[in-house]
Design goal:
Helix 3 runs parallel beside helix 5, helix 3 packs antiparallel against helix 6 and helix 6 crosses helix 8. The radius of gyration is 19 Å and the shape is globular. It has ten helices and ten strands. The chain has two domains: 133 residues, Nucleotidyltransferase, domain 5 (2-Layer Sandwich), CATH 3.30.420.40; 142 residues, Nucleotidyltransferase, domain 5 (2-Layer Sandwich). The longest helix has 17 residues. The termini are far apart.
Length: 280
Amino acid sequence: MKRFAGIDSGSWNTKAVVIDDAGRVLGTSVVRSGADLTAAAALAYAGALDAAECVRDDIAAVWATGFGRNAVPFADGSRTELDCHGRGAAHYVKGALVVIDIGGQDAKVIRLDAQGQRLSHRMNRKCAAGTGSFLDEIALRLGIETAALDPLAAQSNEELELSSFCTVFAGTELLTLIRAGRRPADLAMAAYRSLMKRVIAMDVFEGRIVATGGVVAYHPTMVALLAGALRAEVIVPPHPQEMGAFGAALAARDGAVAVGPASAAREAALVDAERGTDDA
């Protein structure tokens, strides 16, 4: 049995996945990226290898993706994060798809055709609105851990609104509501509702919808709100936080053509342009 690995070097977290030649996940690992992306990639890779009960010599190929993919010196190749998230989602859900990926620092909407080829994509603006960082900031304001936000929101019984998409202004608005005596549970739900509205404003959603990313993995309230607003089932595949790394592992297995410097630069410029289409 051959084994393959993928590393997703994100600006917030680094994820690693080991798969077999059938695409089954054998082991995963998630670590904070920090300031040393190479060290984080090595640590995540070691964790995934341990979870898969194998060693580096067992891996036929390892590919990298994400913000810091060029900082993974042991990778045999690389693909863009848009390619890998789409590739991973298409492995689990067949047919034409719209993939919503909500990470710590950005959100992506990737549209795929029935063959899994990318038709278009959208990125959030250069702001924490619409990302996991927004929820981190709200949790900080409420004096709780981010992991406690979802169970807290489940206790909400009053519909409140955070009218601002800007994280800074939303934080100020939240303080005003706290001062007015609003319940923390209702404020937590308001934060999720604000995040949901920012995401669905990014594109027009038609057809099957797949959600990935750390926010989806740890905040089921977000998935429920997206499904309600879009009036559609939102499919969450296995290992949603590690979907980019999983897609990179699939690329390693399939022998996809590595992204060359010129191609990578063009796509990076395109992604940056998308992020900058709206004012923060």
